[in-house]
């Protein structure tokens, strides 16, 4: 019985650490998705493209901090919808990228970090003024 435990214990520990790593990636991906959703929503209620960029970055950082994810996000914003004429449907899209650290797991085969990316699109109100109009 002792020999069986000595053989199985390392394998069980390896499986446990792998499950913890996978769980951290899934939770972090959910946090990045929430940050992209918040960034797109905040950008969609802005009046112009420059304030949309600022609001999206601030919102993404706040969402990731609220979720406890320690990373510096990269937020790219597609603000082409702000140039659409009033009365026409338009959207704004936010893409949030975050480099999540996994090096503290010290598991062979698991990289030191994983880059997670999420994109979300939000509609602009077709009848609300945009920009300098």
Structural description of this entry:
Helix 1 runs antiparallel to helix 2. With 133 residues, this protein is of the alpha+beta class. The longest helix has 43 residues. The radius of gyration is 21 Å and the shape is rod-shaped. The protein has a three-stranded antiparallel sheet with strand order 1-2-3. It has one domain.
Q: Can you lay out the helices and strands and say which pair or pack?
A:
Layout: H1 2-44, H2 49-66, E1 74-78, E2 90-101, E3 113-124
Antiparallel strand pairs: 1-2, 2-3
Shape: rod-shaped
As a percent range, the share of strand residues is: 15-25%
Q: Helical stretch count?
A: 2
Mean pLDDT across residues: 87
Could you list some keywords that capture this structure?
133 residues; alpha+beta; three-stranded antiparallel β-sheet; 3 strands; 22% strand; rod-shaped
In a nutshell, what does this entry contain?
The protein has 133 residues and is an alpha+beta fold. The protein has helices spanning 2-44, 49-66, and strands spanning 74-78, 90-101, 113-124. The protein is rod-shaped and about 75 Å long.
